[in-house]
Amino acid sequence: MIYESVGTNEPIRQGDIFSTIPRVRVPLTCLPILDSDSSTKRTTWQRVVEDNQGVVTAVLPVEPVDAIVITQDCDAAREEEISFCEIRPFEELEPTAARSLKARVSAITKNARRNLKWFYLPPDPEFGFHRAGGVDFRCAWRLPRTDMEEYRHLRLGRLNHVAYDHFRERLAHFFRRYAYDEWYPLNREEMEYYAGQSEEPVDRYPWQMP
After folding, report:
1. The CATH number of the domain covering residues in 13-20+66-178
2. Secondary element (H or E) of residue 165
């Protein structure tokens, strides 16, 4: 498919796919931190900031997830940390894809041009991808580079040149996309029609008011 093998000792590069790397979840409203006597108390991050506690030790859930490297090659070779995006089951990113073969193909092709929040990864058992997945660009975090170099054996493979070129452009488009209300240039008449067709409430601009 769209993947290629990677030797264990090869440098980490953008587009490398890792299995079961740690993702930490931080509950800001109920944060379990350790006191000086090693007992645990729950507080909020706001209280930690207000009390000017500085560095605190917290007990946090760590989840093993699949992820892809988004750091550029030159930075992945020398910076202190490497950035990853989580890989999730494709049906979670595009629920309509589970309805039928037609819906799945439409999601992979047409929806991919409209939805810049994910990048499709097809299944390929040869590389350990037993179900369709997608890179969730909204979920990114960093891990120490030197540590990850010790865990290169967790790398399943990397994107081939066709997929990598596409991935790099999708990644760039996601982080430089400009959010705007698509209906802002409509006149009153056009706005009436648009609002009537929309499934969600639409906030009108002053020039669109009845």
Report:
1. 2.30.30.110
2. helix 161-176
- What is the C-alpha to C-alpha distance for residues 12 and 71, in angstroms, rounded to an integer? 9
pTM (predicted TM-score): 0.84
Place of tokens 């560095």: 55
User: At 102, which amino acid appears?
Assistant: K
Query: Is 35 in contact with 41 (CB distance < 8 Å)?
Result: yes
**Under a CB-based contact definition with an 8 Å cutoff, are residues 25 and 69 in contact?**
no
Where do the domains of the chain lie? 13-20+66-178, 180-210
Question: What pLDDT, in 10s, does the model give residues 27-59?
Answer: 999 999 988 788 899 999 999 898 877 888 999
For residue 119, what are its two tokens? Answer: 């990048």
Residue with tokens 């802002």: 184
Residue 62 pairs in a beta bridge with: 24
Under DSSP, is residue 104 helix (H, G, I), strand (E, B) or coil? Answer: helix
